Amino acid sequence: MTPNDSPRLGRYVSKSYHGETVRAFVPPPLPPDPPLRFDGLQRLLEQASQALGRLDGLSSALPGLPLFLYAYVRKEAVLSSQIEGTQSSLSDLLLFENEQAPGAPIDDVREVSNYVAALEHGLERLRGGFPLSLRLIREMHGILLSHGRGADKQPGEFRTSQNWIGGTRPGNASFVPPPPEDLMPCLGALELFLHKEDPDLPLLVRAALAHVQFETIHPFLDGNGRVGRLLITFLLCSQGGLREPILYLSLYFKENRAAYYDLLDRVRTKGDWEAWVDFFLTGVRDTAEQAAGAARAMLELFSRDRSRIETLGRPASSALRVHQHLQRRPIGSIRRLSMDLGISIPTVGTSLRHLEDLSIVQETTGGQRDRVFVYKAYLEVLNEGMLPLR
Fold it and tell me: pTM of the full predicted structure?
């Protein structure tokens, strides 16, 4: 670290908190000063940009894009919530949405469901022309914490008290974000950075910087990690890097969580933005390639199974309708499928028996009443990396 790097390090503010003197960190505004050194990042930036471009191009050609987005948004919701300690699975969420979640950790599932609602609200606002802004971030946060745990942590409002990361109080915390009186100047500077065009900072790099800055400011009493991860995708969508919200880094952050937290800390203590950007771009490249592979695998599976169903003859028509619905909701009961499709319960039951005979669906309850069926191979595609953290 050279003396010229010191402006990157921000400043500490000493505050008294319940009789203890606490040092809270106030980050400098973005972009870093001195500017980022791109000499070791250029090749990786090109690879990440190309992978993102291929994924974006694939999204425009996907005939099943709404299905992919429906499933992928829910996978992201589960993964991002798992990082915060929930034990909910994708199956739990899908059963909850199907009004059947026996044995599921209901508080955890409700948190994940809130995340889906917050994400979809933000996307709807962006598509309606609303800017990515502090107001939109607060709106999403309000939905995220609207029910269940966190509902008493000022949903939709920036904090007015000191928070901390790690430890039982600010005095023994691993990190103390800016005090409340410094919060709005930090957030105002971040909002300006989100909107300011800078030809020297590629969009992916701006997203990398914005994520760290948001997590460092930690503007809410709860939910900062989930909102900060959403910010990445929303910035890419709002600035034209993605036409559809199909890149989420929660799986990458989850699988590399020790490095993730260490690099956030290195930015704050050493001003090492380059190491963080290297890590982030690697995640974008690998995640974009993985998402493209998942999309192709889903389409191939749907096409292969549709061809098998078409060999059924007369029963194929109803079975195809059930199969198409399971592409959107891969877990369903006979009663719910009947309601959604507008066809009789006996017809749905017969169609599911045909799909069971073809090994396309599997019954999960083992009972005779309220039977639930899962599109197993589809769920396996979605479930990659989905084991909860213990």
Answer: 0.85
